[in-house]
Every structure is written in structure tokens, then in C-alpha cells.
């Protein structure tokens, strides 16, 4: 009877979660239920599982609508029926085919039409649905012929009056209109609720034939699905046997390459891993991943394989990863083991520019019928909730902004806002729209539409209608194809070095970019701006505190910087032990033997396995079960208790005292939930070191590449500063030298046209293309004749110095531009083959202030290029102390003058505190701490230079200044507006700063860390 139920996967329509729909149905004694969300099958697999759990017969299908006009309901008779539904929806979503209004070609489905859309001829599998409130129409004679074709239709969209109101709000959000302007056809009927079965039967008690027809449909729907069966493409070759042989061959070829000298340990490990991989039927998965990486290598692309896949020596030999698991003592069981049935996990990064070509290869190689991205549900978030719901209630933009930006405690206390809050809270965790998973791709053995309909988001690659968790539960192992700008920086730097210096850098050879002496010196000093993952103020501070001077310490740093490790106090304890190796004892000999590299602290997820294995006596696979039971999705208290009991039983057999074992377990429990996979840290560290190697030996090329890849943690200005410090001669954009991106000629760095804020992208692209095709621009007039540009854009180019090759001042060029443009007709741009002789005329000499260019640059580029920000200050004072000397001033007050780079907000119990990063007039970086009480009297006032008074605290080689007083220092008035005092300080507001927020708790102090520093017997 409930053949048309909507969950909240009927986006901006349904109000019930799948779980609540099934639970409530079970409570009401409903024995069969159909989930028919609007134009989607998103929820059917969770629905099927829950129905089986609660003893309800699951029926699955779809409510087919166009612009909320219901065409029909399709119910799958069997698995083939869902396939037919999915292909129909896919054709509509991806190929633009119209949804059939009537008589769809779905032979394995029952079709139920609403009264408003009955076709002239009903096929054998087609029926008419009638609601209780529509029964009166059956007294008309024409309906007698349909006696065996009419079924009960009791749609379900909401449960309560409040949910009906929520449904109306969702419809207003979807329609982008006010609640008061909704039409009757925009919303569902007030009867679409989960009625008691007895009530529905009572409604139709005079129509036994209708009830019988409905029961027949319910009985004949038999959708069955088997979970946990692998659905990925089974074989890379034509069979399992050939896959195993090819994988073995490739693994041993890679073994010879990775380990030129015979290495028995490596060979034994390869054999052990191949046995497990083949036993779990993952040979094809490895080979498909290898094939993608091989294509990338043939195209000359860089990739980084990371994640737990780097625990595998087979993936190392195949070239999927670049981490030697023997060197770093990485456990294969962390990646795959016979007790772990979940799929392998390869995360592979490419440059953000090259990823789309990799995706195109995958889709073309394996066929668009078999490949799709994972979907994801974008939920209503705090800001979007209050904006959307508030708009439906008719609130003006100013009030919507206030609701969205402020916590509920600060909202206005009026009846409308209270209604917005009341219904807004109900929308938390509701899906708002479907989107594409950032990286997860499914490659299916069967056509993927056997399991899901596909949608086509703007990106251009089809997505499935469910998320990665559902994908995994129904048997799909995703391939994570990621992109990042750090890799793009490395790749571009290598190409730029070749172009600029003629040097080939084999950056893939990790032996040349690990533990280089000069690179280690840079690490120790935290000179890592621009380098992947290790450039943030927090990371640079950590590197200095550790005096990090080798690759393995960098691997550890990449892990302990993670929020969980830092917040637990283990980062603080690690720094202490690293700097004071004689001031602690190892908790137990096993901790010294197995965790000596990290001073007895469990820093990595693999450490949990080590302690479980070597202290607890568990098998490595059981150690991984322990790690998984404590962390991640699917954490089960019953599973955790079972593993905990097993751990203590095993410790007792080892002869360990119970008190000692309890402390070991406490440590495992507190670390396992947040620790970082060591292979992941090692992969990050390799890429960080590659970045650092290039920064050390080819700094100008590297910084230009960083600028062109959108930098990283900081704004463009900071990377330009780094480039200048490295010896680059920075030039403003030039129409004869610049291209879209920043470019390099020897040591001359020309900023790209893309950095000119108000220059249209198509013009920025056209200028260098025209120059390349027809030669350099010879004059301003020549440029105007060749480039379709208006006077305002032309003035911007003049002001930023793009025509300085002419040797003329900006004032002169501006007058010349206006004279040319007055009589210039754009249609005559390409009429003359030869340049007509130019009329010479003399213009008056106009004097320019030395700093006019700097203010032009701030206005157009966002930062000064021709001088330093310090040169623009009204004061000549540069501070009593410079950053390079701060280590000498521990516990002493200093007065410094500095330019603000970034500030990070961190909430505390007493309010928000800030951490600032600055440069002094020498260009050196230093850091400050600003506590809430101090900020009340000495707040930040935007970007610019500040005079700072503070107390230096040196914490393990790293100085931080706790600010006591702070004042923003005034720049000189803008000389371009010397006669207009109102505008002389306008452009100063464009001086930038980088602002970041975090919700992390303050790091614990030493006395709050509960890790014993003395041996327990």
C-alpha cells in the first residue's frame, strides 16, 4: 500500500531519513514498503539493508517527475528492473533525453500512474494509483473497465505537522521563492503521511479489488541484492591466472630496479605480499592502478602514490609509490591482510593541471559504461541553512547576513527569527544537493548502470547517485585520483629549470632529494616557504624546535603536526624527548626496541600494530584489527570490547603484569584514534623534500613555479618576496615580456598578466598569443591596433608599467592613449598591412613622485613591486632588534618594526588568541602570540607595518614574541592624490594579510601530558 515513499534523498522535498522511515514503518507494523525517491535511487541500498533488519519487505523504485509534475512511479520487479530505471534516468541526466511521460520501456517494472496522467492504453505492467481522497471518482462509469488496474496509492513525504511545514520550506528553497508565494502544485498533499495500515485498509474497505490488485504488485516485486560481493573490474587481462602472472612479472622487474643488489629481505617480502594479494583477488586492482601510473609516466607526468598503499613493497616495485617499506619498517598488514576484507587504498596525486587528462584516459580505457565518480551528498550547513530558510520567510539580505555569520545566541529575538531557527535546526545533516566526490572513481565489471543512475555535474565526468560508503558496502573499491598544487609546483619547477638553465633534474629519483646537506640546513632553520606541507608557520616552528636535519625526523614531523597528536600532548612530549634524550626512560623494553625512532611514543598508526604484536603477542593482522576497531568509520563498541579482551588474554600469556598491560592499552587507546599512517607521512615527506631540494638549488625557478601554481599557505606577495630574496629580479607585467603566468628570463622575473586584478582573462591570454604570432609590440599605438582593448583596460596596463619598453613616462602614455583612442575605429584594426608613419608631437614634461609607481602597484597588483613596504612608512625607524638575533633575547623585552604576513585565530576559554607571522626590514620571518586580554587594547588593524613590543620566549630553539603592545604604523599619503586629501589614504586599505581560522583546542602544557617518563616494572 505504501508504494510511493519519499526520503530526504528526494532533495528539497522529502523530510524523512531512510532510517527513520524504516524504523517508523516497523513500529507501525507495516510489512512491505517501497522507497521511490524523486528521480534518484540514492537511498535504495541503505533502505534494503534496514528493511531486512526490521523484517519489512523492501520494494525499490523511483518517482519520475519533471518540474515537480508527477509522470509515474516505477517499482522494480527484480534486479533487472532497477537496471532499466537507472538507464532511463542516466539517458535523461547525461544525454539530455526527455523523461517518458507515459508508457516507458521498463518491462521489469510495475508502472503506477497518478490520476492526472493516465495513458490511453495501459500495458500489462501498468496500473493506476488512487489516493483515499480520490475514491469518489470511481463512481463514474468510465472507471469500471479499470477494475483490475487500480491500486492503493498512499504517498509518504512527511510524518508530522512540523515536518509538513519543513517540506513547504524546502519547496520554497528549491523554488527560490517566499513561503507565501508557493502554489498548490509546488507542494505535496497534506495526506502524504505514514498512516497506520488499519487506517489505510479502512479507507479502502469498500474496494476489495483495489486492495487485491495492490497485494499482487507487492507480492510480485522481488528485488534482492547481495552485499559484499566485489563489483570492480575483475581482471586487468582476460583472467585471474593471467593477472597473477603479469603482476608477479612486473613486481620482480621492479624489484631488480628498486634493489639492484640481491636483497633477500625484499624478495621474501614480495613473495609474501603476492600470496596475500592473489588470495584476496586484488591482482587486477593492483594492475589497473599500475596501468594508470604507467600512462602518466609515458606522458611525462609526475605522480605521488601515498596512503596506506605505500606499506606495500609490491606497489613500490610497480612504481605506484616511492616509499621503501623496508627502510621505514612499514607493515604490509596495515594495508592488506587476510582478516581485512575491505579494499586496498591507493591515493594517487597528480598536478592539478594534469589530473583531467588522467581521468580522460581512465574513462576512455575502461569505457564510460563502466567508469564513474563517486557521488557525495552536500548537506545543509549552518550558513546555508539560515540564508535559505530566512529567505523563504522573506528576511532582507542584511538580516540574512547577520543570521548566517553569527551564532544563534546573538540572533535577534523576534518571532520570525525564532521560526527560522526552529526549522533551520531540523535541516541539519539534510542533503541539499548531490555533488562529485573529490577523487574517488569506480571501475565496474558490469555496466555501472546495473547498480545506479548516473548524473552529469558541470565538471563533465559522470557521477553515481550514492556516496563512497554505500559504494564500498555494495562491493566497489574506489580508485582515489587526486590533484594538488604542490606537485604542480615541483613539476613546473623542473620544466622551468630545463628551459632556463638547460639542466635536467631527475626529481623522481628520491636518492637525490633526501638528506642533502644544504637542504637539511634549510630544514633546521625552517626556511621552507613554498615547500609542500612544511611551509605553514606551525610547521616551520616545529622544524626549528626539532632542529630537524634529516628525512626520518621530517617523516615524524609530518605526523605529529596533525591535530590529534598535537592536541593529545604527544607533539609536545616528542619535542621534549627529541631535545632531551637523557631525561626520560623507556616505559618498557619493547617500547625502546620497537619505538626507539620516536622515543617510545606512538606517533604512527603502524606503532599500534607494533606494540600489539611485540608487547601483546598478537598477530600483525590482529593488531590492525585493534587499530581499526578504535578509529575511523564503523567503530564498533562490541568489536572493540572483543579485541580488548583478546589483547589482555594475550598479554597474560606473555607474562606481563595486568597493571602494566592496562597502561599499555590506555596508551594504544588514546593514540589509535588520531594517529597518522606512517606511509602517508613518509609520502608527504618525500614530496616536501623534493620541493625543498628544488628551493635550495634552483630557488628562483622554484619560487616562480610556486607563484604560478597559486602558491600554497600564503598570498602571492609572500612568494614574490621569497623569489626576490633568492636573487630574482622582480619586474612588473610587460606586454612584450609577460605571458599569462609569471615567467623567467635568466634571473629576470616578469609577473604574469593574470596578476593584474581588473584585466579580463581573455585579454590577458590574447596579448601574449598575438605577440607570439606577429612579433613584439613596437609602440603603444601598435598595441592598440593589434589588441581589442578599451581605454579603461589600457589605462590599467599603463599604470602597472606594462608599456615601459617605450621609454615614456606613464603620464605621457596616458595622454597618448587618449589621443589615439579618440579617433581610432576598432573595425579598422586589421585593415592595413603596413604601419603608417607616426606623427611626432611633443608633450610637456611632467614630474612624478618616486613612490607613485608603488601605489599604482598596490592598487593594481595588491602589493608594491618597485620598493619595499618599509620604504612607504612615514618613519625611518626599523626596530631595535632584528629577527635573526631573537634567540639572544630569551625572557627579554624587544621592540621591533615588522610587516604583517599572516595571522591565525585560535579559540581559548578566555576568548580568541592570535598567532602572527611577520617579516622585518631584512626580509626575515618571525612569529608572535597575541592573548585575548592584550588584543582588547592592541587589536590587529588590517595589513601593513606595525610597531611591536613584546617578551621573547625561546622554546626549544624557536623564538616567539608574546606581544605586550602593538600599533599600526602609518604609510605616507598617496602622492597620486596630493591635491585630494580624501583619497590620499584610500589605497592603503588594499594592503593584504593572510587570515586563517582553526577550532583546535590549545595545546596542553607539559604538566597536563600523562605519558610516563619512567619505566614501569
From TrEMBL:
Q: Which GO terms describe its molecular function?
A: DNA-directed DNA polymerase activity
Q: Which UniProt keywords apply?
A: DNA replication, DNA-directed DNA polymerase, Nucleotidyltransferase, Transferase
Query: NCBIfam families this protein is in?
Result: polc
Q: Which InterPro entries match?
A: DNA_pol3_alpha_NTPase_dom, DNA_pol3_finger, DnaE2/DnaE/PolC, DNAPol_HHH, PHP_dom, Pol/His_phosphatase_N, Pol/histidinol_Pase-like
Name the UniProt record assigns to this protein: DNA-directed DNA polymerase
Catalytic activity as recorded in UniProt: DNA(n) + a 2'-deoxyribonucleoside 5'-triphosphate = DNA(n+1) + diphosphate
Q: Which residues form the Polymerase/histidinol phosphatase N-terminal domain?
A: 1-68
Q: What is its EC number?
A: 2.7.7.7
One matching Pfam family is: HHH_6
EC class (word): transferase
Amino acid at each position: 500500500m505504501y508504494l510511493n515513499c519519499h526520503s530526504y534523498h528526494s532533495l528539497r522535498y522529502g523530510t524523512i531519513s531512510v532510517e527513520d522511515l524504516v524504523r517508523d514503518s516497523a513500529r507501525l507494523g507495516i510489512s512491505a514498503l517501497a522507497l521511490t525517491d524523486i528521480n534518484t535511487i540514492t537511498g535504495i541500498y541503505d533502505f534494503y539493508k534496514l528493511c531486512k533488519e526490521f523484517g519489512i519487505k523492501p520494494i525499490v523504485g523511483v518517482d519520475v517527475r519533471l518540474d515537480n509534475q508527477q509522470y509515474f512511479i516505477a517499482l522494480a520487479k527484480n534486479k533487472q528492473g532497477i537496471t532499466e530505471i537507472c538507464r532511463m534516468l542516466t539517458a535523461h541526466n547525461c544525454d539530455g533525453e526527455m523523461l517518458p511521460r507515459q508508457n516507458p520501456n521498463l518491462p521489469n517494472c510495475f508502472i503506477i500512474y497518478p490520476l492526472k496522467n493516465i495513458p490511453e492504453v495501459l500495458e500489462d505492467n501498468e496500473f493506476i494509483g488512487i489516493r483515499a481522497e480520490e475514491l469518489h471518482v470511481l463512481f463514474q462509469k468510465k472507471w469500471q473497465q479499470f477494475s483490475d488496474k487500480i491500486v492503493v496509492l498512499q504517498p509518504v513525504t512527511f510524518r508530522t505537522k512540523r515536518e509538513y511545514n519543513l517540506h513547504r520550506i524546502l519547496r520554497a528553497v528549491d523554488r527560490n521563492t517566499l513561503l507565501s508565494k508557493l502554489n498548490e502544485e509546488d507542494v505535496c498533499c497534506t495526506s502524504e503521511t505514514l498512516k497506520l495500515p488499519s487506517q489505510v485498509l479502512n479507507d479502502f474497505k469498500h474496494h476489495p479489488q483495489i486492495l487485491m490488485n495492490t497485494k499482487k504488485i507487492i507480492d510480485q516485486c522481488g528485488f534482492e541484492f547481495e552485499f559484499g560481493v566485489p563489483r570492480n573490474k575483475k581482471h586487468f587481462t582476460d583472467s585471474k591466472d593471467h593477472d597473477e602472472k603479469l603482476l608477479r612479472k612486473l613486481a620482480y622487474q621492479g624489484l631488480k630496479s628498486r634493489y639492484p643488489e640481491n636483497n633477500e629481505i625484499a624478495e621474501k617480502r614480495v613473495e609474501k605480499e603476492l600470496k596475500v594479494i592473489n588470495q584476496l583477488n586484488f591482482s587486477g586492482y593492483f594492475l589497473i592502478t599500475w596501468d594508470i601510473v604507467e600512462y602518466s609516466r609515458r606522458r611525462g607526468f609526475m605522480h605521488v602514490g601515498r596512503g596506506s598503499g605505500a606499506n606495500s613493497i609490491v606497489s613500490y616495485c610497480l612504481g605506484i609509490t616511492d616509499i621503501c617499506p623496508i627502510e621505514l619498517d612499514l607493515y604490509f598488514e596495515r594495508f592488506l591482510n587476510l582478516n581485512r576484507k575491505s579494499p586496498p587504498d591507493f591515493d594517487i596525486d597528480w598536478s592539478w593541471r594534469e589530473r583531467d587528462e588522467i581521468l580522460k584516459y581512465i574513462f576512455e580505457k575502461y569505457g564510460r559504461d563502466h567508469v564513474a565518480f563517486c557521488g557525495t551528498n552536500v548537506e545543509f550547513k549552518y550558513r546555508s541553512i539560515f540564508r535559505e530558510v530566512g529567505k523563504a520567510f522573506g528576511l532582507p539580505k542584511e538580516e540574512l547576513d547577520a543570521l548566517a555569520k553569527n551564532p544563534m545566541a546573538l540572533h535577534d529575538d523576534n518571532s520570525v527569527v525564532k521560526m527560522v531557527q526552529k526549522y533551520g535546526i531540523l535541516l541539519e545533516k539534510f542533503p541539499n544537493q548531490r555533488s562529485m566526490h573529490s577523487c574517488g572513481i569506480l571501475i565496474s565489471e558490469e555496466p555501472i548502470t546495473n547498480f545506479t543512475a548516473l548524473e552529469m555535474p558541470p565538471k563533465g565526468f559522470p557521477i553515481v547517485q550514492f556516496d563512497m560508503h554505500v559504494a564500498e558496502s555494495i562491493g566497489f573499491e574506489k580508485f582515489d585520483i587526486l590533484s594538488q598544487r604542490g606537485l604542480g609546483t615541483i613539476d613546473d619547477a623542473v620544466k622551468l629549470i630545463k628551459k632556463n638553465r638547460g639542466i635536467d633534474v631527475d626529481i623522481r629519483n628520491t636518492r637525490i632529494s633526501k638528506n642533502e646537506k644544504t637542504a637539511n640546513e634549510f630544514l633546521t632553520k625552517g626556511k621552507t616557504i613554498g615547500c609542500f606541507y612544511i611551509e605553514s608557520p606551525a610547521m616551520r616552528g616545529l622544524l626549528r624546535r626539532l632542529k630537524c636535519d634529516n628525512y626520518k625526523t621530517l617523516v615524524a614531523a609530518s605526523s605529529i603536526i596533525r591535530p590529534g597528536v598535537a592536541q593529545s600532548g604527544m607533539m609536545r612530549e616528542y619535542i621534549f624527548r627529541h631535545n632531551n634524550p637523557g631525561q626520560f626512560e623507556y616505559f618498557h623494553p619493547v617500547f625502546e626496541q620497537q619505538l626507539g625512532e620516536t622515543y617510545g611514543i606512538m606517533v604512527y598508526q603502524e606503532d599500534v600494530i607494533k606494540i600489539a604484536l611485540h608487547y601483546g603477542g598478537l598477530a600483525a593482522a590482529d593488531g590492525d584489527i585493534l587499530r581499526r576497531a578504535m578509529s575511523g568509520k564503523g567503530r564498533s563498541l562490541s568489536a572493540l570490547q572483543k579485541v580488548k579482551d583478546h589483547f589482555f588474554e594475550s598479554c597474560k600469556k606473555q607474562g606481563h603484569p595486568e597493571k602494566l598491560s592496562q597502561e599499555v592499552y590506555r596508551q594504544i587507546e588514546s593514540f589509535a584514534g588520531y594517529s597518522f599512517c606512517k606511509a602517508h607521512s613518509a609520502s608527504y615527506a618525500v614530496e616536501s623534500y623534493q620541493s625543498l631540494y628544488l628551493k635550495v638549488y634552483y630557488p628562483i625557478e622554484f619560487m616562480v613555479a610556486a607563484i604560478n601554481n597559486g602558491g600554497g599557505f600564503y598570498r602571492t606577495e609572500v612568494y614574490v618576496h621569497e623569489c626576490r630574496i633568492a636573487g630574482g629580479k622582480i619586474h612588473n607585467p610587460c606586454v612584450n615580456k609577460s605571458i599569462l603566468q609569471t615567467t623567467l628570463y635568466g634571473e629576470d622575473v616578469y609577473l604574469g598578466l593574470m596578476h593584474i586584478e581588473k584585466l579580463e582573462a581573455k585579454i590577458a591570454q590574447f596579448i601574449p598569443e598575438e605577440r607570439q604570432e606577429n612579433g613584439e609590440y613596437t609602440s603603444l599605438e601598435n598595441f592598440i591596433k593589434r589588441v581589442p582593448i578599451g581605454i579603461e583596460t589600457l589605462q590599467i596596463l599603463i599604470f602597472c608599467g606594462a608599456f615601459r619598453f617605450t621609454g615614456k613616462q606613464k603620464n605621457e602614455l596616458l595622454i597618448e592613449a587618449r589621443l589615439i583612442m579618440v579617433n581610432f575605429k576598432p573595425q579598422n584594426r586589421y585593415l592595413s598591412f603596413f604601419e603608417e608613419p607616426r606623427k611626432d608631437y611633443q608633450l610637456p614634461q611632467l614630474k612624478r613622485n618616486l613612490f607613485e609607481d608603488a601605489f599604482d602597484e598596490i592598487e593594481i597588483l595588491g602589493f608594491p613591486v618597485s620598493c619595499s613596504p618599509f620604504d612607504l612608512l612615514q618613519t625611518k625607524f626599523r626596530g631595535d632588534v632584528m629577527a635573526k638575533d631573537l634567540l639572544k633575547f630569551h625572557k627579554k623585552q624587544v621592540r621591533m618594526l615588522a610587516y604583517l604576513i599572516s595571522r591565525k585565530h585560535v579559540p581559548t576559554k578566555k576568548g580568541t588568541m592570535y598567532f602572527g607571522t611577520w617579516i622585518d626590514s631584512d626580509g626575515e620571518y618571525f612569529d608572535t602570540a597575541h592573548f585575548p586580554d592584550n588584543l582588547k587594547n592592541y587589536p590587529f588593524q588590517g595589513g601593513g607595518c606595525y610597531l611591536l613590543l613584546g617578551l621573547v620566549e625561546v622554546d626549544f630553539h624557536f623564538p616567539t614574541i608574546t606581544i605586550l603592545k602593538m600599533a599600526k604604523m602609518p604609510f605616507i599619503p598617496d602622492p597620486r592624490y596630493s591635491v585630494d586629501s580624501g583619497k590620499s589614504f584610500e589605497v592603503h586599505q588594499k594592503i593584504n594579510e593572510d587570515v586563517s581560522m582553526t577550532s583546535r583546542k590549545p595545546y596542553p602544557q607539559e604538566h597536563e601530558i600523562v605519558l610516563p617518563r619512567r619505566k614501569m616494572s
